[in-house]
Amino acid sequence: MTTYLLKPGELTLKSGNRQDFESVLRRNLAAMLRGTGAMLSMTQGRFYVRCAPENETGTEDVLRRLFGISGWAKTRVCEKQMDSIIDACIEEAAILFKKGIKTFKINARRTDKSFPADSYKISCTAGDAICGRIAGLAVDVKKPQGTISVEIREKAYIYADAREGLRGLPCGTAGRGMLLLSGGIDSPVAGFMMASRGMRLDAVYFHAWPFTPDEAKSKTIKLAEIIGSYSMGIRLSIINFTPVQNRIKERAPQSWRTVLLRMAMMDCAGILAQQRGDKCLISGESLSQVASQTIENITCTQSRVSLPVMRPLIGMDKEQIIRMAEKIGTYNTSILPYPDCCILFSPPHPVIRGNIAEAQQYYDSLEADELILTALREAETVKAGFPAQ
Ligand code: ATP
Ligand code: MG
């Protein structure tokens, strides 16, 4: 059996409601592990996941997608006896050495204070034993190339391959938000970031059928699946906005098209969010990245919604967003070259610093309420990225 030890993240800071956070983490992990063949247990505030060696890949894939843990490691488990602990340390050290590592330190922690040796003693004894057995490996406590951790709890846990967790808070501890998900690079990252703060996600995608191809829609569903695999699933509403776009074309000056379309999207997303019980809208806007994202135009865009609009990327530049998209696995899908509804419709000279009073006036002149409600009624809903039942 393979054992993984998980380290809780920020939830250790929550004193009063720590248990609530832990129980959500437990529920999420149990759901994500379903079908992988792995088993979850919790002892003295620590989560452990056990699986057969052939199920390691699937299990690790889950641990890499779990919000609420600061780290995890595949660990050896042995009795709390110095001999067994030293043997396990030597085995881990031999693996490090084979990987080309020349210096190491032992990082010992004794949660069980009845264990006779303190952490300093454990580190010294194990360190000496390793150096005695593996010529070529030396201790370096300041800048070691490898670290072997020893944790004395109800058993002894020994591991050298500690991995970073996603951190953040367990999904479902911060209510639910409605993500405006385009097929682009930014909005999937925005959804990921809100999910990392514990928010569950619904999403809405506006397409311009039949002007945007079906591939654009499939691409957005794929993005929802990827983000959903971190956020315990996404309910994605797909809304045909062609009638609204046509109305904008008919009634508004060309330069205002993009801002008015964004206003209508926010308006529609706000109604849907309220129907679904979502507490905020989430967009992938980044200040001044494009003409529609100047502070003046953002003010126009959000002026029709009463819910707060979260913009987790507002202070990030495109490079940073792209790096993050690559890390979370959405980038390659986002760059597939299918036109989205805005490209088909953007004016050559858009308004850059829209005046809010003018925006309101143009928006009212669209008389778009009925069109928006009809579009909402005809929405298609797709469930993406939910854990297996
Ligand atoms: P993205 O990479 O997320 O598409 P972007 O840099 O292309 O963002 P815009 O096209 O101005 O920026 O869109 C700003 C935000 O508005 C997007 O991040 C997204 O949240 C929302 N949005 C834009 N188009 C759509 C759409 N077709 N459906 C749903 N939301 C959209
Ligand atoms: Mg876009």
What does this protein structure show overall?
The protein has 389 residues and is an alpha/beta fold. The protein is elongated, with a radius of gyration of 26 Å. 40% of the residues lie in helices and 21% in strands. It has 13 helices and 15 strands. Residues 180-182, 184-187, 204-206, 265, 283-285, 289-290, 292-293, 340-342 line the site of adenosine-5'-triphosphate.
Bound molecules: adenosine-5'-triphosphate, magnesium ion
Strand element count: 15
Percentage of residues in helical conformation: 25-40%
Radius of gyration: 26 Å
Helix/strand/pairing category: alpha/beta
**Helix and strand run:** EHEEHEHEHEEEEEHEHEHHEHEHHHHE
Overall mean pLDDT stands at 94
Shape: elongated
Provide a count of the helices.
13
Question: What is the oligomer described by this structure?
Answer: single chain
Pick out its properties:
single chain; 389 residues; alpha/beta; six-stranded mixed beta sheet; 40% helix; elongated; binds adenosine-5'-triphosphate; binds magnesium ion
